[in-house]
Amino acid sequence: MAHIPTTSDRAPAPARLLAAGRRRAPRIRWGGLVDHLVLIAGALFMLAPSLMLLQMSTIPDEQIMRTGPSFQIGDRFLPNLDKALNESMSFSGETTGRNMFRNSMILGFGFAIGKIVIAMMAAYAIVYFRLRFAMLAFWLIFTTLLLPLEVRIVPSYEITQQLGLLNTWTGLIVPLIASATATFFFRQYFLSVPEELVEAARIDGAGPIRFFLDILVPLSRTMVAAMFIIMFVYGWNQYLWPTMISTEEGRFTLVQGIKQITQGLEGGHIPEFGRSNILAILAVLPPVLVVVFFQRWFVKGLTDTDK
User: Fold this and answer.
1) Domain range spanning residue 125?
2) What is the mean pLDDT of residues 242-252?
């Protein structure tokens, strides 16, 4: 039987390989490449201040006063870290970095947990209870968004002073524990819960407290995570309110400690740039870690309305 030559038999092997290579050559997606370059440039731009703080914490304070920021990496990081964490900035010995970090954590978690609990209960009452002035109460709460802390800080301070809550954790957290932002988001979230779920819970004999704890709270975990990020960062970055309420150095936060160190620039001695830079890095880490850890739930809580 005669062999019938095919195209593959006639074409030389190198030519076939070259043709296959040409067919399989991947195309460069220029749009995706540009997007990644923009993201990398934005990330470097955002990381530049933190990298500069890290670099400045490795060189002596006198060199920073003379030359400013540079690309030189020194050997002062570990001594400055030990100084920032363990040495006090006052005669009382209580303004160490560890104590201020602990105080900032207490303030951040206190604000986040307290605001979420109060906002969830307020939104639950507005949505599910037949109150005559429920909508009026909601809009009164919502209008407080137009009043920043600086506007109502004086009356809040007077009430706190009259109640004898100065220099206490209760005075630092409770007067600012109500949140119109969280109440608004939880109200919108509860309104999207199907009415059939409410009827089913009522048929099963679930009362208001059981329905709230066993059904609404588990359903709201993504919204809770989203609000936790916002409220934790809000409490962590507080400066004005703790400065007014607490005069005891044992309750100073990291933000207050950084400000106290940098005030040395106005005096006649050299500021402790190394210590303040390390404290600034420590002040940035917890909010960043919270955002990274809850990032998926944060996006889902603010965008997903399916139950």
Assistant:
1) 97-303
2) 86
